[in-house]
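queue> pop job 88
queue> type: inverse folding (structure -> sequence)
queue> payload:
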C-alpha cells in the first residue's frame, strides 16, 4: 500500500471544476478545501508506480496551478493495513 498526501492549489473561481475532477480520479480522496483554492487530498495505490502516476495526473488537471507532495508512505506488508477482528 502506498499513501501520499498532496496539497493541490487552484484559483478560487475554479474550485468547483477542480473538486469535481479530483473526485473522479481513482484512488484520490479530497479531505478538505478552502475558499482560497487549496485542497488537501490523499492518493492511495497498491504500487508506488501507480501512486506516482496519479500524482502526475493531479498536476496535469485543468485549472490546477500546483500539486505539492507533502507526505508519502509505503507499506510492503498488506496485512498490516487490515483491521484486527
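queue> result:
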Amino acid at each position: 500500500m502506498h499513501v501520499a498526501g498532496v496539497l493541490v492549489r487552484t484559483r478560487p473561481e475554479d474550485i468547483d471544476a477542480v473538486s469535481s475532477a479530483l473526485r473522479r480520479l481513482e484512488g484520490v480522496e479530497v479531505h478538505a478545501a478552502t475558499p482560497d483554492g487549496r485542497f488537501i487530498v490523499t492518493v492511495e495505490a497498491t504500487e508506488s508506480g501507480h501512486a506516482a502516476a496519479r500524482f502526475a495526473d493531479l498536476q496535469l488537471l485543468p485549472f490546477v496551478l500546483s500539486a505539492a507532495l507533502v507526505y508519502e508512505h509505503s507499506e510492503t506488508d498488506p496485512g498490516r493495513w487490515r483491521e484486527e477482528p
